[in-house]
Specification:
The structure is a homodimer of 349-residue chains. Chain A has 349 residues and is of the alpha+beta class. Chain A has two domains: 10-151, 60s Ribosomal Protein L30, Chain: A (2-Layer Sandwich), CATH 3.30.1330; 167-335, Phosphoribosyl-aminoimidazole Synthetase, Chain A, domain 2 (Alpha-Beta Complex). Helix content of chain A is 32%, strand content 23%. Chain A has a seven-stranded mixed beta sheet, sandwiched between helices. A four-stranded mixed beta sheet of chain A has the order 3-6-4-5. A two-stranded antiparallel sheet of chain A has the order 1-2. The first copy, chain A, is globular. Chain A starts with 13 loop residues before the first helix and ends in a 14-residue tail after the last strand. Mean pLDDT of chain A is 92; it is low at 341-349. Strand 2 of chain A pairs antiparallel with strand 3 of chain B.
């Protein structure tokens, strides 16, 4: 297609661009009194609730690769990763702001795709887009999202309330998003080597979907509330179980023991792990971006959570804050290293 | 100085970096219940108040040039531009989140400078830093700030309440920050041409200060409240009077007449305008980044505002939404073009 088929961003200008991209967004939340288009948005939490706020950056070449991440999925994911943080506080999201910086290599149509995904996430999770900023950048695409939510003043769940003996629970399964990343990255290499070869991802639909279109565990967080289970600590799994358990232990001043065979790992994730010659436990412990929840509950809640299909009890908190360990399949104990995402290892301009 | 004198960001890693940069921030606001270090921050507006939220991006090479903008000033300014938006709603800021993406060319010490400025702004304006994100980027430095504030539910001031005949008021003086930008940019060119020449900015201290270290007009907004003056519309001047009057008119469905000779322009700004062969009126109308307030009040408030030294009445709103004009010094009327910042004119990678 000729380049002229696309609309250059400079044709619209900054103000009209934002207006253009957000005009199809319909207000959903009664809490929002003033949305996009003023110096600030104004909202009023529901009676008795108070605001929570979380923010995240997504940077091209660091957090996503546009050669296999469609812009619509990227828009969707940029909202999900923030809503996940709100749910992880045991709060409910109300509204988001989205700021975008991008080089002029992106035509208006590309941004429309991005905003389609943003809109879809907002509608699915019932939140309003209430503001943002749009700017050019010399290079690349950068998305900064801030999500705001509401919670009862005495019901928000932090990372620091876990006690020794509390059960460590994980929702869904872990490691799949990382498996999806590896598969996509491999197919990209194959494609770059021989553009005639089209990727065949049929056998990897689950793990690829987990990477490209994550969801936030609103269902589990709400069900915990409904069943009267108040986690003593909770966070979402964006950097992997190993990294997150370190956060919970450090802030709660506990140690932890996790059992490798208890980690919920999907068969497709296991298959990918085998293909790459990496142990599935490594995927489950260190794979990021699953956006599942990890939380702790008092042992008294064992009966309530043990039969719940969406929850796996993977271990327990311990007294000794210096020992954060995993019991491997062969019965040996190993220290858990906090291998979060480390984005600073490559020197660039 | 040898490169080894600086600390590479990768030595710390993402989590420790945030912790390191924010450890000297002391909590100020009783409204903030949970600050940095969890999935989200939690705050509780003062009794009877509701949240407002605003967000802004600052991109290297678009919004700032590190060859003359010290990192400490940049940090300060990144907070001010957001607080200014909160004040422009007739609200009071409570807390901010700051997200940074930067290439590895910045050592830890550079980020410390940036956060020193952020801290200074937070302390000066009495707000808490409650969250953020830090990431590498392939190139450049990008700062995304979200500010949250609080306001009485029936006291926030939008851009859409102005009525025909309302007086258009501006705080302080306008055009100075743009004059400062031109002077700094000229000195940079001179320096690049001959590094032996050191810039002499003594004669330009006011305008350079306006560019490098803007302040938010908390004083005027609070005084308006104290004196019982409720603006019918208000916004801060980030893109220039011409651009902002277009926003107010479009949202209020009014026209406007502004008198060029009423524009408050500092003598140093006039001097710079003469040096560059541009009319001072152009500086006053189109110069951005002054972070003064532009607002409208009913004509009944004329007596209250006319004697107030910090306020200039520069014109009035009119019936005809199609006519937004400036009366020039020679008595001629000219249409005001909305020349906001247009960051999308250069094609890049």
């Amino acid at each position: 297609m000729a380049e002229s088929a696309y609309t250059d961003i400079s044709n619209l200008g900054e103000f009209k661009l934002i207006e253009h991209l957000t005009k199809s967004f319909q207000p959903i939340r009664k809490e929002v009194l003033l949305g996009i288009g003023d110096d600030a948005a104004v909202w009023k939490p529901a009676d008795g609730l108070i605001p929570v706020v979380s923010t995240d950056l997504l940077i091209e070449g660091v957090h996503f690769d546009l050669s296999y991440m469609p812009l619509r999925h990227l828009g969707y994911k940029s909202i999900i990763v923030n809503l996940s943080d709100i749910f992880a506080m045991n709060a409910e999201p109300v509204c988001v702001t989205v700021s975008i910086a991008m080089s002029n290599r992106f035509p208006v149509e590309a941004l429309e795709e991005l905003y389609e995904g943003i809109k879809q996430a907002c509608e699915t999770y019932g939140v309003d887009l209430v503001g943002g900023d749009t700017s050019s950048a010399r290079q690349g695409l950068m998305i900064s999202v801030t999500a705001m939510g509401q919670v009862e003043p005495d019901k928000y769940v932090t990372r620091k309330g876990a006690k020794p003996k509390d059960l460590i629970c994980v929702t869904g399964d872990v490691g799949a998003a990382y498996a999806g990343f590896l598969v996509l990255d491999r197919e990209k290499s194959v494609f770059l080597g021989n553009p005639e070869l089209q990727p065949d991802l049929n056998d990897y639909d689950y793990v690829v979907g987990r990477q490209l279109k994550p969801e936030a565990r609103v269902d589990v967080v709400r069900k915990l509330r409904e069943q009267g289970i108040m986690p003593t600590s909770m966070m979402d799994i964006s950097d992997g179980v190993a990294s997150e358990i370190h956060h919970l232990c450090r802030q709660s001043k506990t140690g932890a023991t996790i059992y490798a065979h208890k980690l919920p790992i999907d068969p497709q994730t296991v298959k990918v792990a085998e293909e790459f010659g990496i142990s599935a436990t490594t995927f489950g412990m260190n794979g990021g971006e699953d956006y599942e929840m990890i939380f702790t509950v008092p042992i008294q809640d064992f009966e309530k959570v043990k039969s719940w299909q969406e929850i796996s009890i993977i271990g327990h908190m311990t007294d000794d804050a210096n020992v954060i360990q995993v019991i491997l399949e062969n019965g040996e104990a190993a220290d858990i290293e906090a291998q979060g995402w480390q984005h600073f290892s490559q020197r660039s301009s």
